[in-house]
Write a structure and sequence with these properties.
The protein is of the alpha/beta class and about 230 residues long. It is built from 8 helices and 12 strands. The strands form 3 sheets. It has a 5-stranded parallel sheet with strand order 2-1-3-4-5, with helices on both faces.
Length: about 230
């Protein structure tokens, strides 16, 4: 018998929570639902989820703050935000807190399940056969540890989110060459929808910021095509 994947789901709206929880359980997931995240460390430690679903607008402590706590406990744990907040500043805040993906409310259960399965499929905690991750990638004055989600550089250690690490692995696989934007979206998100494309723009902006000006490491946008990852 296959082991059920565990989902920690934090949502304070009872009707939505019941629909989402019941549907996910019918699809074979084990779901722990909580209406608030004040005891998130206890939930993560005792339940041991494979993925988290977090509403952003919660009482007492919002989803971004909850994600930050989760990221400190288990930095590799994928987190999907369920929210109506989709302005660029909100996306940046969510990704900075350790989030892996966003799903805009209202959403279909089919799309939610697809995103969950995509996150689990591409989770770097369980690399697929034939997709073995390098232990260390040297990038001039920087050292990237994909398995630890860390980028070491002159300014110290940068803790990467799951999604940031996945994107950087893809870029490193095309060092001093071009990578097609659609290829990157398909590999990391599983589709090249407009919303995922917007998410990619935000992540690329963040990753660019991790490499200091003059470091010789640059992500050049090839308009209408993709990116050129330059390590000179």
């Amino acid at each position: 018998m296959a082991i059920k994947k565990k989902i920690l789901y934090v949502e304070d709206e009872p009707y939505m929570a019941r629909i989402v929880k019941d549907t996910l359980e019918l699809k074979g997931f084990e779901v722990m639902h909580r209406s608030e995240g004040g005891r998130i460390q206890e939930y993560v430690t005792s339940f041991g989820p494979d993925i988290c679903l977090l509403d952003v607008m919660l009482p007492h402590i919002d989803g971004f703050a909850i994600a930050t706590h989760i990221h400190h406990i288990k930095p590799r744990l994928p987190i999907i935000f369920l929210t109506a907040k989709t302005q660029t500043d909100d996306l940046l805040k969510g990704f900075a807190s350790g989030g892996s993906d966003y799903l805009k409310k209202p959403f279909s259960m089919e799309e939610l399940i697809a995103r969950i399965e995509n996150q689990l499929k591409f989770s770097m905690r369980e690399a697929a056969p034939g997709q073995e991750l390098p232990e260390v990638v040297r990038l001039k004055d920087y050292t990237f540890y994909p398995g630890k989600y860390e980028l070491h550089g002159p300014a110290g250690i940068i803790k990467l989110s799951n999604r940031e690490a996945q994107i950087l692995v893809m870029l490193c696989g095309h060092t001093n060459g071009a990578i097609d934007r659609r290829e990157l979206l398909q590999a990391v998100w599983g589709d090249d929808s407009f919303f995922n494309s917007r998410n990619l723009d935000v992540y690329i902006r963040k990753i660019r910021g991790y490499f200091a000006a003059g470091s010789g490491i640059e992500i050049v946008t090839l308009k209408g095509q993709g990116y050129h990852f330059v390590v000179s």
